[in-house]
Amino acid sequence: MNEEILINWSPQETRVAVIGYGAVQDVFIERTLERGLVGNIYMGKVTRVLPGMQSAFIDIGLERAAFLHVADLLPNLNARHNRESGAEEAVAAAPPIERQVFEGQSILVQVLKDPIGNKGARLTAQISIAGRLLVYLPQDDHIGVSQKIPFELRQDLKGRLTRLRGDDGGGYILRTNAEDASDDELGQDITYLRKMWQQIRDSSKRQPAPSLLHAELSLAQRALRDLSTQETTHIRVDAKGQLAELQTFAATFTPDTLEKLSLYTGERVLFDLYNVDAEIAVALQRRVDLRSGGYLVIDQTEALTTIDVNTGGFVGVKNFEETIFKTNLEAAQAAARQLRLRNLGGIIIIDFIDMTQESHREAVVVELKKHLRRDRTKTMVGEFSPLGLLEVTRKRTRESLSQILSDTCPTCHGRGAVKTARTVCYEILRELLTEARNFNPTQFTVIAHPRVVAMLEEEESGHLSDLCAFVGKPVSLQADTSLSPEHYDIVLR
Fold first, then answer.
1. Could you identify which of 21, 34, 237, 338 might form a hypothetical disulfide with 243, taking C-beta atoms 3.0 to 4.6 angstroms apart as the criterion?
2. What is the domain count for the chain?
């Protein structure tokens, strides 16, 4: 398969799309104002040491001084003990902070937590640099493995990494997605991380405190590091300045991507040319149409995601069973792609159309697994349940596309439906009767959505007149377009 990576850059937002098999396979979005400081490495200056709190304030060039606790200043041996045995014992074994730092001292630190409210950023002096497969611990010699990797694979991975690391030292943690990595892939990550650390060290010797030495990679840089593979033929960028920055980055850290980079100069917008914005629009809808005439209905909830497969207008050419089978095969391919596009994680339940033949069910599972193999995020597929449901799990890696681009509807509050105008009319009539019994106003004014007011004036006018006669009070109606269809006010005069 040949892939292309498209990078659409603007000062406020960067968008990356992966194109494969003639269609959009992945979409990533990063907004400038929402980028945090976590992972950034600074040369800071100690402005104040607080022995009573065993902490220090560090100037890293932000509006507020950042906070560094003694637990994050531990030497390597105690730092490892901190991870394995708990912080209290490790802190007890460490020298007090006033014997480790002093006011005016320059110190290399990394942001652990972003500033919140009136609190400054939380720092650590134990530096870690994340790669695609590994996390590099340049001040340590420990090799760790993600607990999510099966136990039987950990020792093998640890041995391979020890051999690949050689005598250059430094500690590493194997990330979950390194489970199936080859020696070449691990070696490339080691080379990348060591180059990054060398650049940081060189900058620390030149830059005065306070100064930023290393910012967490931008989305465009991560695309070069994480998304580009041997199948990637072109990486197209639509901004000249961004291309120059990526070429500089690629020349040092990802040289295999340098020749793939090019500037897009076409008249049409890059994402429009490849139909990316249209695909994003579809990925924000519940319904996804299939070429055959069938369709998927995708509902994302807090607990899980459901995908319902329907034949729609597809009637087939042979028999009903064959129609169902072909629809389910197409749905398996579309569902796998939508999981990537929407970045849906956790438990996914797919309700394929019922199939009577076991061979058809097996073929649908094989088709789904085949298309899920293109997914960079780890997925697992179960077997059909007795009720004909198929369970899929997909690791949560970031917010879903819907969570990034959408807010919960302020009218229905995420229910996906609102009360009918007639339902609201009857609620108003009941409330008018209650208010008339509890109070003794001279008249009522109902302020509601125009559709509700129209129904009270027309179809429900008889019921409103009967109520007015019963309570002996007049009711006036006022339409307000700013109100949602469910909301109304009753004013007593």
1. 237
2. 4
